[in-house]
Specification:
With 326 residues, this protein is mainly alpha-helical. It has 17 helices and two strands.
Length: 326
């Protein structure tokens, strides 16, 4: 038969597929080589964090030792949780915690919402020249050091030559008030400084979030008859809600971080009872009195609380239906 003359075609043996792990390794190597220049740009940042952020963490071991500089880290005596017990049972802990938390609460109530409000107001401006001018004016204070801010505060509120202090005295009358030295005015001045210096910088973040809102959403809302308030409530606020959540999580991590430089420059002998916070206490104990181990224990306590607050606020944000930070 004719079919007997046709040679039988034997199909080639199928190659065994490579293991999934091998394919994944090959793909990873290919991506590393493909984006090699981007990874190379990461090296300076990684080196910075390794040398100046993670390597110094070895010094935290002195929080559990009676550190003596001449003996070094390894030669100092191990005392365990002795310094933490002294911190929690000492007479200063309650006052420091109250002052720090009260400043943090005032910051959350007044300073945190300020950039959001300013960004929303600037977003409603339709005159570009006026909008850019206001943006530039509110950005400038961020680039001034706290030394300049404290000096301006003394020039404005000092009892002797303060411009605003004399203006208030001319209206109210009576005995002059030394706003800079009195303990009752310490926290309001700190909040005013934070508002003036940091509001503009935080506004940049929220304006960037607002810039990403699709303009067609506003056009569709106007077609449906929505006014400015409806557009603000149903489009603008939801657009920046993820940014607000992320900034709130980051702010919670700095709850016990009141800022050493600002508090230190505004502290006097008359307002020290309300001005002492953990940051300044670390300086007093660690630098001026040489209690390095005790000061390190205070700083480590503050850092651990900050980490716990970040994880806790991130967990709470996710439970409330937000994206969170990680």
């Amino acid at each position: 038969m004719a079919t007997d003359l046709v040679p039988e075609v034997v199909p080639p043996a199928a190659e065994s597929p490579r293991p999934a792990a091998t394919r994944k390794r090959t793909r990873r190597t290919h991506n590393l080589w493909r984006y090699r220049w981007l990874y190379l740009m990461l090296v300076p940042g990684l080196a910075y964090f390794a040398l100046f952020k993670y390597l110094p963490m070895y010094g935290l071991t002195i929080a559990f030792k009676d550190y003596v500089p001449f003996l070094g880290y390894s030669g100092s005596e191990w005392v365990g949780l002795k310094h933490f017990q002294e911190l929690f049972t000492g007479p200063d802990f309650g006052r420091l915690l109250f002052n720090t938390l009260l400043l943090a609460l005032l910051t959350i109530l007044f300073v945190f919402p300020a950039p959001i409000v300013v960004a929303l107001m600037l977003n409603e401006l339709r005159i570009n020249v006026l909008k850019r001018s206001v943006q530039s004016l509110v950005y400038i204070p961020h680039f001034l050091s706290w030394t300049i801010v404290a000096s301006l505060t003394y020039l404005l509120f000092s009892v002797d030559f303060g411009v605003i202090a004399n203006w208030i005295h001319g209206i109210v009358g009576g005995q002059k008030t030394d706003y800079v030295a009195q303990a009752d005015w310490f926290r309001p001045l700190i909040v005013l400084q934070l508002l003036w210096k940091q509001t503009g910088w935080g506004t940049i973040i929220y304006l960037a979030a607002l810039a990403g809102v699709d303009s067609q959403l506003y056009e569709a809302a106007r077609v449906d008859g929505a006014g400015r308030w409806r557009q603000f409530w149903h489009i603008t606020l939801p657009a920046i809600r993820p940014t607000i959540v992320v900034m709130a999580i980051l702010t919670s991590g700095n709850l016990l971080d009141s800022g050493f430089e600002q508090i230190w420059l505004m502290t006097t002998s008359l307002n020290r009872d309300v001005a002492d916070v953990f940051d300044t206490f670390v300086y007093y104990i660690g630098i001026t009195q040489g209690s390095f181990s005790y000061a390190t224990a205070v700083g480590l306590f503050k850092g651990i609380v900050g980490v716990l607050l970040i994880f806790g606020s991130n967990f709470l944000a996710k439970r409330l239906g937000q994206r969170g930070l990680f």
